[in-house]
Amino acid sequence: MSNEHFDLVIVGGGIAAATVAKTVVEKAAAEYPARHPRILILEAGRATAMSADKYDTYVEAYQEALIKVPNSPYPASSSAPQPDVLDIRRPVMEGRQTKTPADQGYFVQMGPLPFGSDYARSLGGTTLHWLGTCLRMLPHDFRMYSTYRRGVDWPLTYEELKPYYERAEWDIIGVAANVDDQYYPGFVDHPAEFFKAADTVRFPGGGYSFPMERIPSSYLDQYLAKLADGMTISLTGRDGTVHDFTVRISNTPSARNSTPTTPTYEVVGAVGNADRGQRCEGNSSCIPICPAQAKYSALKTLYELIVRYPDREPVQGEQVRARVAVRSQSVVMEVLHTQKPGETGTVTGLRYKTYYDDGNPPTEHRVTAGTYVLAANAIENATLLLASGAANNSDQVGRNLMDHPLLLTWGLLQENVGAFRGPGSTSGIPVFRDGPFRKERTAFRVEIGNWGWNFPENAPYDTVHDLVGGGRDGRARLYGKDLRRRLGEILPRQFRIAWELEQDPQSTNRVTVDDRYRDALGKHRPVLHYDLSEYVRASLPWAAEASKQLFRRLGIDETQRRPVYEPGDYTHYDPHDASAVEYDGMTYWVRGAGHVVGTHRMGDDPRSSVVDSHQHSHDLDNLYIVGCGSMPTLGTSNPTLTMTALAIRTGDRIAQDLKGAGR
Amino acid sequence: MTQPTPISTLTDLKAALQLAIGVELSTIPVYLTALYSIEEGRNTDAAQTIRSVVMEEMLHMTLAANVLNALSEVPSVEPVTFQGHEGLVPVPGYPLDSPLISGIGTLRLLPFSPQAVDGFVRIEHPLHGAADVAEIAAGACGYRTIGEFYGAITLALKDPAICPDSAFQHRNQVPDTQYYGGAGHVVEVRDRASALQAVRTIVDEGEGLPPEHLEHEAKKVTTEDRLRSGWQMYSHYARFRELQTGRRFRTGQLANEDPEGALLLVDYGAVHPALYVPRNGDRADGPEGAALIEFDLAYSGLVDGLYRAFSGEPQALPRAVHAMHELRSRAVALMRTRIPADPAHTLCPRFSYLPLGDREKQARQAVELREQSR
Amino acid sequence: MPNGTSPTSPPTPQQIFTDLSAALTGFDRAELAGTGLVDTYYDTLLRIIGEREAGQLLRAAAEALETDRRHHGNEALEAELIDSPRFGPVVVSLIKLWYLGSWYPLSGRYRDVSGSTADDVEHVVSAQGYREGLVWAAAGAHPMGAKPPGFGSWAEPPYLPPTL
Fold first, then answer.
1. What local confidence, expressed as pLDDT, does residue B207 receive?
2. Same domain, A318 and A421
3. Which of B38, B54, B173, B177 to mutate to test binding with chain A, by most A CBs within 10 Å of its CB?
């Protein structure tokens, strides 16, 4: 078993890892005296493309895939398997007990509901197929217990995290948005106040701007704004109180390249071919893959690191600098440590396996470091810690697993709005993101989808099947110019909304490990227990009712069903679907949003949290556990931006603490 | 030895810049024809090389337009009088024998082939392939190389007697933030210095390269280049020499040497056999003929859009970019389509700029041709 | 004249296939040729239903198309192919192939009579087939993940060419 030593070892090769590494390298070099740490990044999956021509093969793989799910372009090995939405089944329950777990694929689903999201185990991580939405969390999201007696408070406030949001938007991700478009509850008439800059050196006077102008709102967004802006949606609370919400369509900040707001901002194009991807080109496939690489992925940051800080001795005349090594196909099996139950301790090394897929058995290695960072995705971090018996004096590791349960509603509009063009979403309706109603039901975010019924009805495939027919009578219903014309009447009028519900932390929603469930390498597979609380479920009828009022405004409130195609509301939820959820006698489909959060929550109290506000383990003094897992509550923002802000803050701390480490 | 004709009036300088926009534009269809003829996913290195040059020609067009705008003249497709020669047309047709620059030879629209690449090298060689500038016969306008033409423009821009300081104004500039896709930065022209900087960028990157640059290193790629545009340290000439020889330059080699680095894999078989047929030589009627006309209409609209973007119309540039994307799809479709009467060849986009007055008639004809097959 | 042939020379099988495809999809032969897939899909058809059966289909198609051409209608195509229990299911799969770039298997009823080949399973014929699916053009869009229309194009009003 080989043994190596680094200043910093990071487990995982996604955005959290890349952000920590870049921040540590740059911050440590700026310290006095400057330090130049040697960093190792261990990635369980395969290395992904680091040049544009290789990247194109992933695009091709997506185009050739029969079913174009998020992970379809990214092959996984049985030695580092990854969850796939195609594997989602319902476990068989007897009351609250699991009779038969659903263990197709990578996850072992214990129920009662299946956890509906996936992630990618490849270099670059899930940013390979994220949508790129970059909403900050709202001030109340950090103070849920104090404000609404729900969930817990964060050990950080919005104001405290703000400088790191700014750095995440400028220095890591590159976010395109205009401040004036952001009509968040509490700041509807003064978005500039929400964004008032923390960094007054970069933004003299505090007037914040994003590094790039907004991604233009789709024609659909403009159409909706024309019809629905200013309308009131009225929803009734349990005690009969009527809550009025004024609709304003709001352009969504996103991690895709657009026009720089200042000539000094450098747009980062494709990895290994910077000329490409300097603007979003409208490929309309952000999920599963942005062919132009105009959307941020962690590959961009990782590529910069390995080009600027190669892992070799400086050649003569070269400046001393940090060194970053990336090792893929290297799965960390165990965190070695001195911790005894109820006490604190130190990490003494990592045991990892490197696999080859060429017929040779995997090899086992050990690595030690001054500081260790787990940044392997919330579920992977928790699985590894639980398997290692590490950092869990609080008994919170693996608990409070969250996602944004997502309710879809969809309809056929009266007019051609040009569906299937542009990024997956360019606007939303933020008004339901906060309000006093959060005492009794969760907030939700409204995402307007630009890709017709691609998500709810597998369009355009199923639309073609409906029109062309076949099946029992084996006869073409429509063909020739009639078919072409009819598709032109239907497809560009398809429209859908995703109502993304905040999920509250529940200790029973958790990741566990079970020695009976291991992958080909012998690593524990995640065993998931998952349900939606009454608090979340109570928002399902609200979202459904809000949708009805909006659709009425759009003149499409009449209920319709395929294969008939007339303007109307096509929303329907089949009770036999794996994602069906009952509430108050109604059935809903609740999909996963791919936001895997909350398995090693942060907090000030070591008895109720796993890490502190710097994502430093309460139990192990040289261990940081970073990523979405640290978030105590989720709010209604897609979590990647907040995770990135937290990772920058952690990177700063690690750089300060490097002390004599590095040269 | 003859000397290039100097530019001696502001009027001639403006005409020269109108023609300079056209010179930059004139090479783009030549490169695009080769680029779009490559079968999808094949010859990726060659395609990337050609594309990088196209992007820079686009930049050069923009720079020339910015200089012209700064001299308070609107870029236009209308013929100009230059050095006493009347009716010089900025927007070219093909095959093109430049009335302006005698050494450049005939520009033809050819699919990607050794012959096409030889043509590229000739365009981008400082002396257009000649060993000595004296070998080139001077043409009507007195410029043998693109370098001489830009040399004359540079001298005139430097001369306060031709253009006084007051002649430069910051107007109708395409800003750098609006330009993307590679090829470095747009210079906004506000005075003589920035005008000269804009012209220097055109000359340094491209086909106006001074002959002595052949004695320089062919390329010098740094860490920053690997992170940004790796092409910036490479002249067009060096890039096309690599294609021509099927070898990369090694670090430290001079531009006039034969590249001795890694093989650059080129497969001239993975190319659509497109055959350029001029408009008056129509061999395709029916829907194939319609597709050719529709391409020309789209190309004409794109050229107009670019000129509008160069005239201070802010929405014109993004729309021109959409038109470029559309044009690419149309070109690729044409190149896959066999010529009915000559099935060994496929259609070749003509890049024919149609006069505004002719377009309605052409559009009607395209509709009629499509209907022939229905 | 279809495909530029002289009035006397009979159309080649590929030409019949192209003309049939044009009648079934509503896209003319230049639009179909522009996808670069005429040869690929001709081969796909032969691979899946067999050359012998394809020969029957193309003979029936040639006759029907010729009749319809003379009468400026589509009655023969409708009667001899669309409504035919023998050719109808193949026509359905062929339309979907052109529109979606995927082959969708023939029905059990078809196979009960005409048999089946091992290739007659659902599959994406090629990445190019996906990219050139006619459904995207019919929708006034572009294939998801290919042929991007450029920055900000999605903010412009949609455009559909008038179907002739």
1. 59
2. no
3. B177
More confident residue, B227 or A435: A435
ipTM given for this complex? 0.96
Task: Report the residue of chain B nearest A271, measured CA to CA.
Answer: B227
- Mind listing the pLDDT tens digit for each residue in B305-327? 999 999 988 789 999 999 999 99
pTM recorded for the entire structure: 0.95
pLDDT score of B282:
64
DSSP code of C154? G
**Res A135 pLDDT > 50:** yes
Averaged pLDDT score across all residues of chain A: 95
* The pLDDT of residue C1 is above 60: no
Residue A347, beta-bridge partner list:
A337
At A119, the pLDDT band (50, 70, 90 cuts) reads very high
pLDDT at C95 over 90: yes
Q: For residue A360, tell me if it sits in a domain.
A: no
Q: Are residues A502 and A613 in the same domain?
A: no
Measure the CA–CA gap between A87 and B108, rounded to whole angstroms.
56
| CB contact (8 A) between residue B325 and residue C152 | no
The whole domain housing A573 covers: 211-252+404-593
CB A556 within 8 A of CB A413: yes
Tokens 């090629």 correspond to C126
E strands in B14-130: 80-82, 85-88, 96-97, 106-107
CA distance A578 to A410: 19
State the pairing for strand pair A330-337/A347-354. antiparallel
End-to-end Cα separation, chain A, in angstroms:
27
For chain B, give every domain's residue range.
Answer: 10-110+122-216, 274-371
* Partner-chain contact A416 C158, CB within 8 Å: yes
Residue A317: per-residue pLDDT = 82
Tell me how far apart the alpha carbons of residues C24 and C33 are, in angstroms, rounded to a whole number. Answer: 15
Among A226, A481, A485, the strongest candidate for a mutation testing the C interface, having the largest count of C CBs within 10 A, is A481
Backbone phi, then psi, for A447, in 5-degree steps? -110, 125
**Which residue from A109, A519, A62, A558 is spatially nearest to A331, judged by alpha carbons?**
A519
For the cut 90, the answer to whether the pLDDT of residue C162 exceeds it is: no
Same domain, A436 and A333: no
Mapped onto helix, strand or coil, the DSSP state of residue B151 is helix
Find out whether C154 and A426 touch, Cβ atoms under 8 Å: yes
Q: Which residues of chain B have pLDDT under 70?
A: 1-2, 183, 206-209, 220-225, 229-233, 281-284, 373-374
Q: Are strands A363-374 and A623-625 parallel, antiparallel or unpaired?
A: parallel
C30/B371 touch (CB, cutoff 8 Å), yes or no: no
Q: Look at residue A175 and tell me whether its pLDDT is greater than 50.
A: yes
Q: Quote the CA–CA distance of B104 and B96 in Å, as a whole number.
A: 10
The domain B10-110+122-216 is placed in CATH, from the list 1.10.10, 3.30.70, 2.60.40, 1.20.1260, at 1.20.1260
Residue A412 and residue A282 in one domain: no
User: Under an 8 A CB cutoff, do B337 and C34 touch?
Assistant: yes
Which of A14, A105, A20, A107 is CA-nearest to residue A512?
Answer: A107
Which residues of chain B neighbour A53 with C-beta distances below 8 Å?
44-45, 48
**How many domains, in total, are found in chain A?**
2
Let me know: does B185 contact B179? Beta carbons within 8 Å: yes
- Quick check: bond before A288 cis, omega within 30? yes
What token pair was written down for A493?
A: 């009028």
- Give the rounded percent of residues in chain A with a pLDDT score beyond 70: 99
